[in-house]
Amino acid sequence: MKTTLLIFLTITLALDVYAGSATWLLNAGDGNWNNASHWIPATIPNGPDDIATFDVSNTRVPSVFADTEVNSIVFNSGASAFTITVMPGSTLTVSGTGIIKNSGQTQNFITEVDDFLNGGDGGSISFTGAATAGAGSVFSVRGSEGNYAAQGGHIDFYNSSTAGSGSFINTGSAYAHGGVASFRDSSTAAAGTFTNYGGAATFGGNGKTEFLDNSSAGNAIITNKGATTLALGGFVDFFGTSTAGNAAITNEASSTAYTDGSWTTFWSSSSGGNATITCYGGATGSRGLVDFTDDSTAGNATIICHGEPADGEGGIAFFDQSSTGGTARIELFGKGTLSLTNREVPKLAVGSIEGDGFVNIERNGLMIGSNNLSTSFSGIIDDAGLGGSLTKIGNGTLTLGNANNYTGGTHVKRGSLVVNNTGGSGTGTGPLQVDSGKLGGKGIITGAVTVGSGGNKPAVLTPGDRGTGLLVIQNTLVFGSNGACHWQFDTRTFQATGAFAQGVTINNGATFSASGQGSVQLPLGMVFTRRRHPSRALLPIFLMTEQPLSAATLSEPTTKAATATISPSPSCRRKFQLLTGSTRSRR
After folding, report:
1. What does pTM read for this prediction?
2. Is 324 inside any structural domain?
């Protein structure tokens, strides 16, 4: 009997220590979570099946002083507004359902940090299994206030847990480590809202959100704040095979000169997913940035880099090492910049580029068009004289509206390239090769142009833009066997498209066509050459007819027009006068 009684007492004591589900009292003394007398029944919720329930209470600041695990935390419909603080060195683990908020009050959670004299860990909250942080709760993850060894607070998501639609504030530190929200395994930020602040003092640590393993940013809204002192700005890191999902990520700059902006970095094999990543400019020496490095990819993200306040910096996107651009849409405005300056793999393909910003390709090749969108870019593409090149890929149209300074040449492999600059050269100083697709516009090209490289798919020169204008080629023009030229005109308005070149070679198999006029096969060896004239540097060269050309001669140019006599057959002669932007046919 004594033995039985002793066993019974042992079991009873064990239940008191190892807890069970309980509800927080109306008056819970000093608010210590780990005191059983503050719960009803008098047991500490601390086990994988335990539920901690909160209702109306006068003690609304519970504090967790020891490692504690619960299945879920439930706030009843009439619950007060609580602030639950996890003290330095302690971890609150939610391993089951998660946080359930049935009340109309905002519920707050804080991960506390150590004081100035100590260098210990900050408090942390962990979500494991399929637990969720729920909706309508605010999590404040504090940066350290201690010495340089002190750690900031943590919120960690493991397994398939989720941030729900909670709000997470990761503050910076005055000394060492900022607050961190971390996602691991296959966890997701879901529809959470995250704000990462910069360091709170000179050289202070920053708040951050990080994604590791196969985790995802989901549909989260993430804002990285610039620093206000000589400290690091807030940031987001992606590692492993994690993805930005469909998140909206904003990288702000600082309004204080020479302080750090904020940034988002993709490491390892992580992906930009379908996220929208926006980088803002700031004061001199401060900018928001996104950096793809290692073997990461931009995926199908939209990357937007804005200009700056007066005399400041623009947002910037880096593609470093062997990272890839996927089908990303890149929008650059003002001093917003795309930089390829730190690459190990010399080529980068991106979905599209648009806006009026700046592209620095250095010695690399930039391929544009993998998302098949049609976009216009009126900014500047520059390579610092290092031989960078541009290649048009995909089915869409890329329109270049400004003079560009790259020197390594231009390639059109697919889709359309429209050159509409008004000065300099829209395609840099190197040669331009059209393998297939179209080249058009009413701008200026200074490099030698070859239309058609002998392939099976047509390469077409379509001078003008939307039916009017002249494309000026300040160099030679060669049509390969699969090359063609399509000329447009309107007999009602006498408007037409055309092109100028300093010399044209048309190889066997090249075809010319005009809208509504059919096509014509030109014989081998047909060559148009430039004639010098003090009042006119270039000759109009493209003359259209329904019949095969047997002979064609260009007269000496005048200040207004050049004429050509075309002899399709002994019985039919037509004379065309080509004017800048117009044509007339006379029999």
Report:
1. 0.86
2. no
Question: What are the beta bridge partners of residue 544?
Answer: none
- Apex CA 263: angle with CA 400 and CA 302, to 5°? 40
Q: What DSSP assignment string belongs to 463-496? A: EBBTTBEEEEESSEEEE-TTEEEEE-EETTTTEE
Residue 489 falls inside a structural domain: no
Q: What is the DSSP string of 160-210?
A: T-B-TEEEEEE---SSS---EEEE-TT-B-TT-EEEE---SSTT----EEE
Task: Say how far apart CA 570 and CA 50 lie, in whole Å.
Answer: 102
Q: How far is residue 226's CA from residue 240's CA, in Å, rounded to a whole number?
A: 26
What is the Cα–Cα distance from 378 to 304, expressed in whole angstroms? 15
Chunked mean pLDDT (size 10), the chain, 587 residues: 39 48 98 98 97 98 98 98 96 98 96 70 95 97 68 93 98 78 99 88 74 99 81 87 99 72 94 98 79 99 88 90 98 96 96 98 98 98 98 98 98 98 97 97 96 90 81 91 78 61 76 54 45 36 35 29 29 28 29
Contact 77, 143 (CB under 8 A): no
Residues in CB range of 194: below 8 A, 6 or more apart: 167, 168, 170, 181, 209, 220, 221, 222, 223, 236
- Local structure of residue 321 (DSSP, 8 states): B
Closest CA to 227 of 278, 265, 171: 171
Q: What is the pLDDT, as a whole number, of residue 226? A: 79
579 Cβ contact partners less than 8 Å away, ≥ 6 residues apart = 560, 561
Contact 267, 241 (CB under 8 A): no
SS3 267: coil
Residue 114's domain comprises: 106-308
Query: Do the Cβ atoms of 240 and 269 come closer than 8 Å?
Result: yes
**Sign, CA torsion 389/391/396/397:** positive
Q: How far apart are the first and last CA of the chain?
A: 129
Q: Are strands 503-506 and 539-540 parallel, antiparallel or unpaired?
A: unpaired
Asked whether residue 269 is assigned to any structural domain, the reply reads: yes
| Domain assignment present for 186 | yes
Q: Are 189 and 220 in contact (CB under 8 A)?
A: yes
How many domains is the chain built from?
1
